[in-house]
Amino acid sequence: MSLADSDPFVDPVDTVGDHDYTEGWTLPVGRSASLTLATDSLIVLDEDFTRRETRNCCGLLPSKAKTTQAIPFFNILWAELSDFDINVQYAKPTAKNVVRVAAVNYLVEKPQRSYAQSWVTKLLDRAYGESQRKKRIKVLINPFGGSGSAQKWYLRDIEPIFAAARCEIDVERTLYQGHAVEIAEKLDIEAYDVIASCSGDGLPHEVFNGLGKKKDATKALSKVAVAQLPCGTGNAMSWNLNGTSSTSIAALCIVKGIRTPLDLTSITQGDRRTLSFLSQSLGIVAEVDLGTEHLRWMGSARFTYGFLVRVVRKTVYPCDLWVKIDIPTKGAIREHYRKELTNHAPVKERRDSNDTEDPALPELQYGSIASPLPSTFTNIPSDNVGNFYAGNMALMAPNANFFPATLPSDGHLDLITVGGDISRHSAIKCFLAVENGGFFDLPQVNYRKISGYRIIPRGQKGGYISIDGERVPFEGFQAEVHRGLGTVLSKTGHLYEADGVVPKTG
Q1: Taking a C-beta distance cutoff of 8 angstroms, is the pair 307, 378 a contact?
Q2: Whether the Cβ atoms of residue 363 and residue 218 lie closer than 8 Å to each other
Q3: Helices (H), strands (E): how many in the chain?
Q4: Are strands 85-95 and 98-107 parallel, antiparallel or unpaired?
Q5: What is the pTM of this model?
Q6: Residue in 201, 263, 289, 414 annotated catalytic
Q7: Is 100 exposed, middle or buried (0-12, 13-18, 19+ CB in 10 A)?
Q8: DSSP alpha helices (H): ranges in 174-246?
Q9: How do residues 169-199 score in pLDDT, each as one tens digit?
Q10: 5 is annotated as an active-site residue
Q11: CB-CB contact of 465 with 370 (8 Å)
């Protein structure tokens, strides 16, 4: 789904004539106003709007005032009928990437009250659709997130939207690295529907792993949705699921989010087993991300600088690599993605069936890094790897759509390998293509869908391996995908908010 396909946050008042009014769902309110449920919006018609407009031409001539306001159903937070009036609260755009709680309020005459109650019920049905109302949300705030601004952003941008939507909120601040793991591990999963982290991608990683440590891990990961309120330097989770890094818009997206199964990947390294929800990398991406931490003062330019330095050196990262390849060609991957565009199957069908009664994490089908090499794994020559990158989400940053064919719960990781010995011109072309959307089709880019792999660095004294953006020891590890093991909230219930690949025509 393209980010440009729709923008539910923009008031479509200028195109109100295009809306399909539903006969029988107009509620008269007062002498000169009405509320109508159209196809995609609540239409507020009020003749008094003209009296509130300013006058132009030094006040001599009246301005051309609108009498209609359209509020997208997606932006409706709540509606209720009190003793005398009807109140509708919604998220109103106040700037390009900001929404604030606003309300429309009208008197309802006594003879209209029975009909008005039915009308409110219909409005909330339209406003929430598949999404759960009044979500019970455990909010985790990383006080160091956003250079220390996470707390301020929560109080200003997020809490009012949750409150207006009648969500039950329980707030806790994380005190140290790994604290979110402990909180999630001890969480009463019957008391919450969502764990939402005011942070970067680090806290969601901890939350998934905390839920994975519970005795009933499979149930916990299925029942409690993990969400991100973007308050960090890396907000990939919010970009993929909400299409934004705005804290207020992300809050609205969580209120309206549809429960969506998410593939999780078990990573075994040494005697440790962890869960990955985002990506794993070895090579230039890991080096550029983790190896330029000392250049944070450069902002996003540090990534460009780090990339160019390694391109000039034509750095390679030799390794031994074995992969469980599921879809080997780009043409077949395009077709796989195309089928998913219209496949809105029920949530239960998007999870692997668990035939055992063991509620813990699923057993490892391929064993761990210490197990014999699985016979279904194929060796991929990797003496001159420049980039090994496995992704479970499309966007690693707002303009970095590395994995345009990835899907939330198709049971696959998307694997990219690029040689480190390609020409500098080709390497720079690959770098630029990530932003312009041509990366997938480049012949230098090997793109496969896989369900497991084993990778062991070779001939290097040290280096960087990144799991969900976090540094792990520079040693071999094995990965295995678990289809639909986790749960998140998304707009569609089955796709990311990113431009995807579709079959070529002609």
Answers
A1: no
A2: no
A3: 13, 26
A4: antiparallel
A5: 0.89
A6: 201
A7: middle
A8: 179-186, 202-212, 217-223, 236-242
A9: 999 999 999 999 999 999 999 999 999 999 9
A10: no
A11: no
